[in-house]
Amino acid sequence: MSAQQWGQRAQHSQRGKGGFAAAAGWVAAVAAGLAFVLGASPAVAVPPPPPNPSDSELEESKESARERANQVGKLTSQLAEAESKLTSLENEVARKLELANKARVDADEAADAAAQARRDAKRARESATTAGRAVDAAREETDEFVAGSYQQGSKMGSLSAYVTSKSPEEVLLRAQLIEAVSDKQLDALDELSTARVAKSNADAAARKAVEVAEEKKREAEQAKRAAREAYQAATDARASQEARAEELAEDRDSVQRQLYQAQRQVKGLENQRERYQDWLEAKREEEAQQAAAAAAQSGGSPAPEASAPASPSVETVISRAMSQLGVPYAWGGGNTQGPTYGIRDYGVADSYGDYNKIGFDCSGLMIYAFAGVTTLPHYSGYQYDSGRKVPLSQMRRGDMLFWGTAGIHHVALYLGNGMMIEAPQSGMHVRVTPVRYGDILPYAVRMIG
Known about the structure:
Layout: H1 3-15, H2 19-39, H3 55-156, H4 160-163, H5 168-265, H6 269-297, H7 312-322, E1 340-341, H8 348-351, E2 358-359, H9 362-369, H10 380-383, E3 388-391, E4 400-403, E5 410-416, E6 419-422, E7 431-434, E8 443-446
Antiparallel strand pairs: 1-2, 3-8, 4-5, 5-6, 6-7
């Protein structure tokens, strides 16, 4: 519309209800809208100039705008709720998958303990066999002595050995012989008793080792069943929640379309300008937040010290983690040597083919990063208890961060300046990203310093 046409419209408005003030207000609103759109952002199209409204039309437009504003508020609230549910569902699936990881680690440890117990039992049985041979040898020696004693008992084992002696010298000789034989008998009996005790102890040790082995075996089987149940729970949760997540996403898109429709249906330049002002205020707040985040990432407040190099050990840990940027996520993957094939979980990870990928999961990346410092277990819950806990307000470069207030399901390495490196989830890669504070635990874990 030309300036002349706008002037004619303004003159026409002077003759209608509301007078010159209404026309001037309308022109000012249009001018403000043009200045905003042309000078600031093309995100919202300039509405076409409306006809000169009557008082009743303006009132109806305001009422319609109020109704739509209420509707937009409700729809916006539903959208926020839908997105919150989506996040909760994803966190719950991740938590269950990490519990499956825990069960797998527990099963491996129980199996190792059972194997060690079986080795102990084998050694105990060998000791029992050796002791048994000693008992047999002692018994043979005792039997020989007893047999010899009975054979000579009529001459040496009674009073007749002295009575039937022909001379004092023979009596003395026979007494010395009886004493020597008695000592030998006692020695043989002592050896037999010692051998029997040794065999009994060896047998008891073997039985105890076998009992321990069986107990460890039962623990391993229980841990494996728990792992399987955790896998199945994760799979079932994902399957049942995936449909719900899709439904929520559709609801979100529907809400968004209704929101845009409500905005388009708002009548009256005054209300339109108010919407622009509301939007502009929100946009300025968003830009202020982005500027603050950018300042933090560039070394500014609130953590300027995080940009400075840490100790050599911390820098080595971070360097090892950063060397794996872009490596695929693979559930169960990663060790002290680097990325490994993932493992089957019979659920989400399998659907992404993690068992055919060489990569890391979140705790596997930490194992590799800290390999030169310490050995970490392949479960984020155990890693949370592996070092010194410090409040998030004191976190620094090289600390581990954890998520899952209802059960730990993720771990990442803090780089400073509000950034971290992580192996996020199936279908993604090792990446550097801003720290997420939703569902984060209130303490970081410090392994060095």
